[in-house]
Every structure is written in structure tokens, then in C-alpha cells.
């Protein structure tokens, strides 16, 4: 498996953990409502630890400064696109109260354009 593909796969996994840490307590509030805020914060930190176990290696494997295929700018834009893609799937599946609207899609198109501009040599 190439460094670029491994980087993207680790970023996807990292963002799954990140989304669960940041928004899981909202999506699964009925299962967590018996816990206090401090317990939920520690629970989220525990999930976020796994995010970092994927995020840091992804950036090190993917960084051109360490032999990878991506500049730091490219890594950041890839991360943002992956983050919003994972969040969109999460929101559509678990957050039934919010809907995907045209302005969200327009924003995603702008991010795709950002990827194109960042990767343009």
C-alpha cells in the first residue's frame, strides 16, 4: 500500500474517532444522559486518544518532509475534506434533526475547489 493511500485511510479512521469524540455525546444523548458533564468529557477524551493514534502517523507518513507524497498544505486540505465527508455521513445517519441543504453542498464544492487549487503545481 502506498504512503498516500495509507495516509488517507488513517485520516479517515482518525476522523471517525474525532467525530465520535466531538459529536457522539449529542447523537447518543439518551445512552449518556445519566452521566455528568465531566464523565462525558473524559469519555470524549478517551475516544480522541484513538484519533491521535491515527492522525499523528497519518501526518508523518504523508508528509513530504518525512518522505511522504504530500506537502503540509496538501495534508491540511485532505484532512478538512475527509473531516467534512465523515461528518456528513455521521450527521445524515445519526443526527436526524439536521438536514443536508444546498448551502452545505455549495460549501463542499468550495472545499473541492480548495483541493484543486492546493494540489495545482
Task: Describe the protein.
The structure is a single chain. This protein is an all-alpha fold. Helix content is 79%, strand content 0%. It contains 5 helices and no strands. The chain is flat and about 50 Å long. The relative contact order is 0.16. The mean pLDDT is 90.
Can you tag this structure with a few keywords?
single chain, 121 residues, mainly alpha, 5 helices
Concise overview:
The chain is an all-alpha fold.
Provide the fold topology.
Layout: H1 3-27, H2 29-32, H3 37-62, H4 72-94, H5 102-119
Distance between the termini: 25 Å
Secondary structure tally, helices: 5
User: Judging from the principal axes of the Cα atoms, what is the shape?
Assistant: flat
**Mean pLDDT over the full residue set:** 90
The major sheet is characterized as: none
Order of helices and strands: HHHHH
Q: Which stretches of 5+ consecutive residues score pLDDT under 50?
A: none
Instruction: State the total count of DSSP E strands.
Output: 0
> What is the beta-strand fraction?
under 5%
| Assembly annotation | single chain
Amino acid at each position: 500500500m502506498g504512503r498516500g493511500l495509507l495516509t488517507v485511510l488513517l485520516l479517515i479512521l482518525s476522523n471517525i474517532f474525532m467525530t465520535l469524540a466531538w459529536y457522539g455525546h449529542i447523537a447518543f444523548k439518551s445512552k449518556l444522559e445519566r452521566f455528568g458533564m465531566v464523565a462525558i468529557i473524559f469519555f470524549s477524551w478517551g475516544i480522541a486518544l484513538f484519533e491521535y493514534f491515527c492522525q499523528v502517523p497519518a501526518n508523518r507518513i504523508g508528509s513530504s518532509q518525512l518522505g511522504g507524497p504530500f506537502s503540509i498544505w496538501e495534508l491540511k486540505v485532505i484532512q478538512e475534506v475527509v473531516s467534512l465527508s465523515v461528518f456528513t455521513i455521521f450527521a445524515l445517519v445519526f443526527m436526524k434533526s439536521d438536514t443536508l441543504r444546498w448551502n452545505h453542498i455549495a460549501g463542499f464544492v468550495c472545499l473541492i475547489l480548495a483541493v484543486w487549487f492546493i494540489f495545482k503545481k
